[in-house]
């Protein structure tokens, strides 16, 4: 799952950066480190990590695979909604024109759907609270930065 998540993330992001497909026209800045065809390797790692932790959280809510996929996609999309407003200020990435297009969120949902489908179809099971804690930590981290940015500026 980690390899599929990493490769899916990298390929879709490369298509995004190089062609404007999937997520819109954007470019990665320098804060995330070494890049392959304009995409930081860390982004591929992030896609894999997010797919696994959100899939693990979603599997605890329902037995139904469709509901698990929907919850996993929603969790992934929610985190993207938190990160997008502050990504340019953190030197992560920037969209052409400075506005995040709707295409980005549709693309995120599509890629997340694919990854959640794979996770739940193959019945990957992760026990314990680590996925919850890691997801919550990311929410807290980006929420604090977002609040800081909107109240006093970064």
SSE ordering? HEEEHHEHH
Residues in helices, as a percent range = 55-70%
Low-confidence spans: none
**Order of strands across the main sheet:** 1-4
Total domains, how many? 1
What's the main sheet like?
A: 2 strands, antiparallel
The average pLDDT value, as a whole number, equals 96
Pairing-aware structural class of the strands and helices?
mainly alpha
From the N-terminal CA to the C-terminal CA, the straight-line distance is 36 Å
| Rg measurement, Å | 15 Å
Question: How many strand elements?
Answer: 4
Give the count of helical stretches.
Answer: 5
Oligomer: single chain
Molecular shape: globular
**Beta-strand share of residues:** 5-15%
